[in-house]
Prior knowledge:
By secondary structure, the chain is of the alpha/beta class.
Amino acid sequence: MRVAVITPVAGRHRHLSVQRRGLRRSTAPVGSHVVVCMGDPAAADVAAARAGPPLAAVHVDVPDSRLPLARARNAGAERAIESGADLLVFLDVDCVPAPGMVRRYVECAGEDRAPRLLCGPVAYLPPPPPAGYDLDRLSELADPHPARPHPGENETLENGDPRLFWSLSFAVRPAVWERIGGFCEEYRGYGGEDTDFGQCAAAAGVRLDWTGGAVAHHQFHPVSDPPVEHVDDVVANARIFFRRWGWWPMSGWLTEFQRLGLAHFDPADGWRHGPSGD
């Protein structure tokens, strides 16, 4: 099975370099690493400077500060499918694959089962030491995400809740990808496109299976909770989602934004930017 790993990138070049190191250690072959450079042409040079799977660079323009993550993933999938990939593995630039991650995705994708998305567990790393992460010790250092399933090494949890889908690490066969229709490119910037993709998959009769053993280790970077620096994106994307699906995603963040005076809920018009009355 020819595997393409697809990674959207905008900055975080050190993370990309470590990811390439991780892919080089894969116990199953990776046919190509499709690096989608979102307004960041230097990312292709960073990836090429580190030994790893054969590299294919795709460039996506960013006309403003709102990263087109949905469009980038679609562009990466298009390149991978054109190149003859039998399995698309999407891996965010923050993530370092465990040596067996690709192998487990390949094993599960090769089973004769209903159309499905395969989501591997993601475990979170502490800040790296001055010399960087020791890739042999990542499994000792990382903690599973508390809000996502973390099945055992050879365990598969079938028929997962599509609302929990995330694009940090997942795999899909090209025919299933085309059945879902890819990511909705109305979403730009931070938030919403993952939950939308999960809903598209469910609507297309594609189930979500949590795939034990297909572990990715998430490299540390600072985050805000709620992500106040992305409030405009979150509100705008939540409104797109509500128009498409009839319910509000990211409700925890929206409620916190309201508490902070950064957003408000208008009974007649839904979530809006800014405090009530603006």
